[in-house]
Design goal:
Layout: E1 9-13, H1 18-29, E2 33-38, E3 50-53, H2 61-73, E4 78-81, H3 98-126, E5 129-134, H4 148-168, E6 173-180, H5 186-199, H6 203-214, H7 224-235, E7 246-249
Parallel strand pairs: 1-2, 1-4, 2-3, 4-5, 5-6, 6-7
Helix pairs in contact: 1-7, 2-3, 3-4, 5-6
Length: 257
């Protein structure tokens, strides 16, 4: 990794735990001024990181965030739209209410659209910037029993990201997608425990069921840092000709190239 990130200003949403925290730490260690946002603060914010509390499912949050970031730093170089979660119950179409669909789409799709819309004008004025939208392998390989509404929102995010990359590439802004598979995060471990409880099986049995369903040739979950490493590369000048691409970090789970 080169020194191109030193002194840049980045926003990482959902940055207090799991993949988001790993990305925050990686960028901070590379000399980036990182603004972290989540609903609740982490126990510890280090390395000069700037925390802003925000509920990204609320329409006004993006504008409030943008105002505070630009008021304090005057620029934005990197946006990592990491906040997201599978909020809905399993069980397929009949288990999902309108509210389930709306909640998944608000958090996993509309929050990204709003953050980018609020901050892109500054990137366009700067004639530079990088946006990374964190998606999921489930957007290409949905599991109807577990991820129907979540997968559909993330699939929309993939299409939106490609369209946005085509629109703003000529303005000096790159947009790429990173799609993790099964990652060892608090949310994933909670998801597995919920499956275990609802199915009356052990957590180990639930983990095996998920891994068998997804089919990971490497046979393990990813560590959050393994996703963060790719994000750090993609936002650096070493990746300055990479735009409009979706990268899988899934241990080989996606059955196609």
């Amino acid at each position: 990794m080169d020194n191109s990130l030193k002194g840049q200003v980045a926003l990482v949403t959902g940055g207090t735990k799991g993949i988001g925290k790993a990305i925050v730490d990686k960028l901070s260690n590379a000399g980036v001024q990182v603004i972290v946002t989540a609903r609740t603060a982490a126990k510890e914010i280090t390395n000069g990181q700037h925390f802003i509390s925000a509920d990204l499912t609320q329409r006004e949050s993006a504008e409030t965030l943008a105002k505070e970031i630009l008021g304090k730093y005057g620029r934005i170089d990197i946006i990592v739209n990491n906040a997201g979660a599978n909020l809905s119950p399993g069980g397929g179409f009949s288990a999902l209410s309108d509210e389930h669909w709306i909640n998944d789409w608000q958090l996993n799709f509309m929050s990204v659209v709003r953050i980018n819309k609020a901050l892109l004008p500054t990137m366009i004025e700067q004639k530079s910037g990088v946006i990374i939208n964190i998606s999921t392998g489930a957007a290409k390989q949905p599991i109807w029993e577990m991820t129907m509404s979540y997968s559909s929102a993330k699939a929309a995010l993939n299409v939106y990201s490609k369209a946005l990359a085509n629109e703003v590439g000529s303005k000096g802004i790159r947009v790429n997608v990173v799609s993790p598979g099964v990652v060892k995060t608090p949310l994933m471990l909670e998801f597995i425990d919920n499956i275990a409880e609802s199915s009356n099986i052990t957590s180990d049995e639930a983990f095996k069921a998920v891994m068998d369903k997804v089919g990971v040739p490497l046979g393990r979950m990813a560590e959050p840092e393994e996703v963060a490493n790719l994000v750090a590369f993609l936002v650096s000048t070493e990746a300055k000709y990479i735009n409009g691409t979706n990268y899988s970090v899934d241990g080989g789970a996606l059955p196609t190239i």
